[in-house]
Request: fold
Amino acid sequence: MKRAFSLAIALLLAAAAHAQALEVPYLTGRVVDNAEILKPDTRRQLTELLRVHEERTTNQIAVLTLPTLAGESVEDFAVRVFEQWKLGRKGKDNGVLLVVAPQDRRMRIEVGYGLEGRLTDAAAARIIRNVMTPRFKNGDFDGGVLQGAGAIAAHLEGGATTEPAAPAPEEKSEFMPAPDMAFHEKILFGAFIFGIIGLFTFIGIVTPGMGWFLYFFLIPFWAMFPIAIFGSAITFYILIAYLVGFPLAKLLVSSTGTYRRALKDIKRKGHATIGGFTVGGGSSSAGGSSWSSSSSGGFSGGGGSSGGGGASGSW
Reply:
């Protein structure tokens, strides 16, 4: 009985530890900056650098930043990310993952099986020690990550690994849209983005109850998506307009008879119909149907794997 009780406790503890394991982020592009430590220009330069390297060599290099490892070791977490993202070509296993967790002051270069002979543990450690750590100590995350990724790519291409030349920064005004998109692409992208967040903004304004949840939920979308069309300066004013305009519009709409009737219907029936949308119970639908959307940065792993090779560091 005592042994069975101990086994049950051990299983419960293992299940709790598994439930609390840090979730692997979605692979949305070559650079996944969940810690938000990189400037938009840096992310664009990194993406272009890694894209060109993959075209030259077929090696897949990805960068992941996250605020904290939540107590997990950077080595274990990097292996889990690598396994889920499957970086590198299947059969070649030529992927590399660069992980940075600023709150824990930890980083790691995880190397796929197929590149362990070229990007050895010692070489990865030198890049961390000589290229990334000094910059991180000075608070220069942009320079540390950009130069570190450049050093990895340069080493794999047979070049120097101590001070790789970073791509020249693009000269553009803050008030201009991103230059790597054609005009018609900006129009199409803008229609897509503003159509989606505009629709949900409208639903939030006219819907009793869940409207304020949507108000706060949409703030990061209004703060980030317009940058690809208008640049950061204009996006700032768009965000201010949303933060102020939504509550004012909500206040005006809440005084209308349609809004009050919808509120009564939700209280009595649990749902109401507003402009063709059936709302209530924390959900919304149009004509009884539902929809979902997702986005991708056009980058995905090719089926590669890692055996734990690489190096870790701190600053």
